[in-house]
Design brief:
2 strands; alpha+beta
Length: about 70
């Protein structure tokens, strides 16, 4: 992946008071843990080969499951 393909969104709030000093704050909530881990393509291939030989794995379930959170373009 190239650097220009990354998009980073950082929600911040800037308040300018009468004294001239801006107050900058970030959203203090932690992102909820979705339980979905990044699996590199080579590891995906290995997990698929293991599945073909009859082994079951949580990673395989994640690889082949449909993602309901994606929006159709």
């Amino acid at each position: 992946m190239r650097a220009r393909e990354f998009v980073i969104n950082v929600p911040i709030t800037i308040k300018i008071n009468g004294d001239g000093d801006p107050e900058i704050s970030t959203d203090s909530q932690e992102a909820p843990d979705t339980g979905v881990a990044f699996i590199p393509p080579l590891q995906q291939k290995i997990e698929m080969m293991k599945a073909n030989s009859g082994k079951e794995s949580d990673l395989l379930d994640q690889i082949i499951s449909d993602d309901d959170d994606t929006e159709a373009d």
